[in-house]
Amino acid sequence: MIMEEQGVNQRCYFLLGEAPTKEAAARIAEVFSGCPYVYFMGAFGEMVVGIYYLSGEHQWWLQAVAENPQATLGLKRAALYVTDRPAFPAGMEPRVPKERGERSPCGAYCPECPRYRDPCRGCPASRHFLGSSSRGEGRYGDR
């Protein structure tokens, strides 16, 4: 059974970041907990831990967090680890709502982002998403 054919993202990312305060860490974890690609998101004191399953089209975002944690998430520093062979779970289908909102769960408004359309196809939880409806990849429609 091939996970890619079932619409499941297999590439797993582990993000570990340090926020300026415990309150900031908790706020960051809460804001991004609704992301369709988040498997786990939590704050441990000043540390923020996130586990994501992403397609290739969305990996640029986590790379940007690792390269510029202050500008992207407000973190003092961040480290990103990736595996193409997670043991459990082996993959995760994005959590896409039946009704897509004007904004993504984190509050982003895709059309205002300079990376919207290239390289980013938008958030699958937003009506501005340009990917397929089930996986967060491909083309969904021009909005």
Secondary structure layout plus pairing:
Layout: E1 12-18, H1 22-32, E2 38-44, E3 47-53, H2 59-67, H3 69-73, E4 77-83
Antiparallel strand pairs: 1-3, 1-4, 2-3
Helicity range:
10-25%
Oligomer: single chain
Q: How would you characterize the largest beta sheet?
A: 4 strands, antiparallel
User: How much strand?
Assistant: 15-25%
Spatial strand arrangement across the major sheet: 2-3-1-4
Q: What order do the helices and strands follow?
A: EHEEHHE
Span between N and C termini? 35 Å
Task: Write structural notes for this entry.
By secondary structure, the chain is of the alpha+beta class. The chain has a domain at about 5-85: Lrp/AsnC effector binding domain/regulation of amino acid metabolism (RAM) domain (Alpha-Beta Plaits, 2-Layer Sandwich), CATH 3.30.70. The protein contains 3 helices and 4 strands. Strands 2-3-1-4 form a 4-stranded antiparallel β-sheet, with helices on one face. A hairpin with a 2-residue loop joins strand 2 (about 40-45) and strand 3 (about 45-55). The chain starts with 11 loop residues before the first strand and ends in a 60-residue tail after the last strand. Residues about 1-5 and about 135-143 have low confidence and may be disordered.
